[in-house]
């Protein structure tokens, strides 16, 4: 029994035959018939065993089949074993050229917006099935592509030596490759990939803030313009992030540039830091851009009451202070004294305020020397976070 008969995959001019018999197989004969004309064009009876046994094995023609024309041929295989039994099978011989490309040469491999063309060259060759010789494939139409780019592929025709050259517009980073669709007597082929890149033009993003210092809860309006060397960058998304002084950033707003490349957006910074406006380009020839505007946010701090009074030889001072959603830690309050007839305040003691009740007030108190004069509580604040504040003065005689 003959199982199969077809061309060896990497040696198309050689016929592969798989057969089995109850006795030793002693003869194989292949008749090759043109599909186009129905005429027999060759007979081969010289086979060699390449695997298995003589009763169950695989045979190849000892040499590639010699035919005048490339194409597909019917292969009628007759097998005879030592017992005189015969069997036959009709298979096929792909007597065609396996084609391949050289690695395409791309020059330049990096393009710019003003010079997007690159030259792609290479060579298309094929393996002759009858003698395994590598020969050029002339007159073939090949296409040149940029995988990852958006430009249409271009075509070129191979010269007598199989070479070709084509100009390809690079519209985005990608990988250039060439393709031959095959044809009568030829298999198709793809080349290897050659990477190409683009050098983006520098874009510029400006930002102007309506205020650089605000009280907590107040908004800031950011305005600016997005441009590149060849004009305005319109209808593009810009993102606004708030960044802490340590550089931790989170997105708080977004908007789009208008037809004049400008933008405007109102944001409410949560604390002191900076506002970062970012543009992430979707255009391969336009770079990303960013701009920042520093902002100081003053959080509320106020004394809600303060008292100073004498009991015998002791003066007691104390009161309450409150903050907004953000408060310092620890909360230090200076108890200050002003002698009669002077303008200078002297810090007598510093107290740490403690939470007084569920209302959010923080309590501070102290016992001080019984000198007559003005007393007040003073919160020194913190740079760029809380402004200094003081109570009204209280006179103790």
CATH architecture of the largest domain: Sandwich
The structural domain count equals 4
Question: Which spans of ≥5 residues are poorly predicted at pLDDT below 50?
Answer: none
Strand content: over 45%
- Major sheet: 6 strands, mixed
| Computed structural class | mainly beta
CATH structural class of the largest domain: Mainly Beta
Report the average pLDDT across residues: 93
Q: In total, how many beta strands? A: 38
First-last Cα distance = 128 Å
Instruction: List the quaternary state of the chains.
Output: single chain
Task: Give the C-alpha Rg.
Answer: 44 Å
What proportion of the residues is helical, as a percent range? under 10%
CATH superfamily of the largest domain: Immunoglobulins
Count of alpha and pi helical runs: 0
Overall 3D shape: elongated
What can you see in these coordinates?
- The structure is a single chain.
- The protein has 4 domains: about 1-95, Immunoglobulin-like, CATH 2.60.40; about 100-200, Immunoglobulin-like (Sandwich), CATH 2.60.40.10; about 205-300, Macroglobulin (MG2) domain (Immunoglobulin-like), CATH 2.60.40.1930; about 300-395, Immunoglobulins (Immunoglobulin-like).
- The strands form 8 sheets. Strands 11, 14, 15, 17, 18 and 19 form a 6-stranded mixed sheet that branches. Strands 9, 10, 12, 13 and 16 form a 5-stranded antiparallel sheet that branches.
- With about 400 residues, the protein is mainly beta.
- Helix content is about 0%, strand content about 60%.
- The protein is built from no helices and 38 strands.
- A hairpin with a 2-residue loop joins β23 and β24 (about 230).
- The protein has strands at about 1-10, 10-20, 25-35, 40-45, 45-50, 55-60, 70-80, 85-95, 100, 105, 110, 115-125, 135, 140-145, 155, 165-170, 175-180, 190, 195-200, 205, 210, 215, 220-230, 230, 235-245, 250-255, 260-265, 275-280, 290-300, 300-310, 315-325, 330-340, 345-350, 355, 360-370, 375-380, 390, 395.
